[in-house]
Amino acid sequence: MPEGDTVYRAAAHLHEALAGSVVTRAELRVPRYSAAARSLVGCKITSVTPRGKHLLTNFDDGRVLHTHLGMDGSWRIARSGQRPRVAHHLIRAALETNRTIALGLELSVVELLTSDEATARLGHLGPDLLGPDWDPSAALARIQQKPSREIAAALLDQRNLAGLGNEYVTELCFLRGLDPHTPVGEVRDIPRLIELAHRLITVNRDRVERTTTGNLRRGQRSWVFSRDGQPCRRCGSTILRETHASGSETSSDPNATTRISYRCPHCQPQSGNT
């Protein structure tokens, strides 16, 4: 599941493969930008950078290709002329240089923007857990603005801190003994929770096998995430599958959208708010 660490690695690989090279072919399979993509030919790619869960491919003419992996997206890289074996209909973006081809597959967002437009587009994001702007105090202040909000939703809200997805949030709640529905105002030591989030995503940013347990063996990498019906690794209780607010809820309905949640009923006692 793509979260901030996945995007961080994708940006690093794309930067290594593309930065400093001139575009020889470009294709964006989005009606609004399909024609403009051709004008990228001849432009130099200056950098590829992550911002939370967003990828920014920067060109020397000031434009930025903004992409988002969504739930299933990825980038594939190969030598120029050796197109990766992928289903043609999955390709939403393609950038080719004289040495490399990069294909964006099943991307949820593909936009070709000016640098000012890109800045405005991502201006709502909170401090990036894996970025140079990381500021735990700013993240804390944003989270505490809504004390009645569920802690899981507050951590998932990219306006508070950028980079966490549902897997990290579910695991963080377990590690801190929290029911994901616990109101922010009832969570003790939120700074420690934020520090743990930063530490977990940082140690995972350079490896494909994400783990929150410290064990890299298949089936041993998570405490509760996707382990409903299985015994808790700490106490043996059966892990429950529930839902919690998604972090992108509307002001009129805080539970308009939900995400799957996993909880140990013993290690994470049910909040009185549920």
UniProtKB/TrEMBL annotation:
EC number(s) on record? Answer: 4.2.99.18
**Pfam families tied to this protein:** Fapy_DNA_glyco (PF01149), H2TH (PF06831)
Bias class Polar residues marks the residues at: 245-260
Where does the FPG-type domain start and stop, copy by copy? 223-269
Q: Where is this region: Disordered?
A: 243-274
Record-linked SUPFAM superfamilies? Glucocorticoid receptor-like (DNA-binding domain), N-terminal domain of MutM-like DNA repair proteins, S13-like H2TH domain
Q: Does the keyword Lyase apply?
A: yes
Q: Domain named Formamidopyrimidine-DNA glycosylase catalytic: which ranges? A: 2-131
Q: What is the enzyme's class at the highest EC level?
A: lyase
Key words of the record? DNA damage, DNA repair, DNA-binding, Glycosidase, Hydrolase, Lyase, Metal-binding, Multifunctional enzyme, Zinc, Zinc-finger
Tell me which domain of life the UniProt entry assigns to the organism this sequence originates from.
Bacteria
Q: Which PANTHER family match?
A: ENDONUCLEASE 8
- Which family does the record claim for this protein? Belongs to the FPG family.
**What name does the UniProt record give this protein?**
DNA-(apurinic or apyrimidinic site) lyase
Q: Tell me which species this is from.
A: Pseudoclavibacter albus
